[in-house]
């Protein structure tokens, strides 16, 4: 006889936290940042936290990660590592399928001698 225990519900903010922790741990990621204003969003359940947007549709997840990279990093490789690690974390921890992980590198950190970190705004 099968025992029915009930239902497990995972809040969308849990996915945001998983993505934030996972992406922030990738070498070359300086920090997560808010997304560029004015970007259109997908339809469906949409949850947002600093540097992360999660879209849930038909029990699958799409993620947008907005970050600032360390200087002297292979940006393409770092972005691919974020995609891989975030996908694996969501699938392993929550058991949901991931449709896509979009990585948006918004800026690169520069280190000026004797000063705290600043972002390179000259390129904008």
Chain-wise SSE layout:
Layout: H1 12-24, E1 29-32, E2 45-49, E3 52-57, E4 60-69, H2 75-93, E5 97-110, E6 118-119
Parallel strand pairs: 4-5
Antiparallel strand pairs: 1-4, 2-3, 3-4, 5-6
Helix pairs in contact: 1-2
Keywords, please?
124 residues; six-stranded mixed sheet; Alpha-Beta Plaits; 2 helices; elongated; alpha+beta; disordered C terminus
CATH class: Alpha Beta
Poorly predicted segments: 38-45, 120-124
CATH architecture assignment name: 2-Layer Sandwich
Mean of all residue-level pLDDT scores? 84
Give the percentage of residues in beta strands. 25-35%
In this structure, how is the largest beta sheet organized? 6 strands, mixed
Q: In the CATH scheme, what's the topology name?
A: Alpha-Beta Plaits
CATH superfamily label = Cation efflux protein, cytoplasmic domain
Instruction: Indicate the overall shape.
Output: elongated
Helix percent reads 25-40%
Distance, first to last CA:
64 Å
What structural class is derived from the secondary structure elements? Answer: alpha+beta
Rg calculated over all Cα atoms: 17 Å
Count every helix, treating DSSP H or I runs of 4 or more residues as helices. Answer: 2
- Tell me the series of helices and strands, N- to C-terminal: HEEEEHEE
């Amino acid at each position: 006889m099968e025992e029915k225990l009930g239902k497990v519900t995972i809040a969308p903010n849990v996915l945001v936290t998983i993505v934030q922790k996972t992406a922030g741990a990738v070498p070359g990621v300086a920090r997560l940042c808010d997304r560029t204003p004015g970007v259109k969003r997908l339809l469906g359940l949409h949850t947002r936290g600093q540097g992360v947007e999660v879209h849930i549709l038909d029990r699958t997840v799409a993620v947008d990660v907005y970050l600032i990279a360390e200087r002297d990093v292979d940006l393409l490789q770092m972005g691919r590592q974020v995609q891989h690690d975030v996908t694996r974390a969501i699938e392993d921890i929550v058991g949901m399928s991931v449709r896509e992980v979009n990585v948006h590198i918004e800026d690169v950190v520069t280190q000026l001698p004797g000063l705290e970190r600043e972002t390179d705004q000259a390129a904008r």
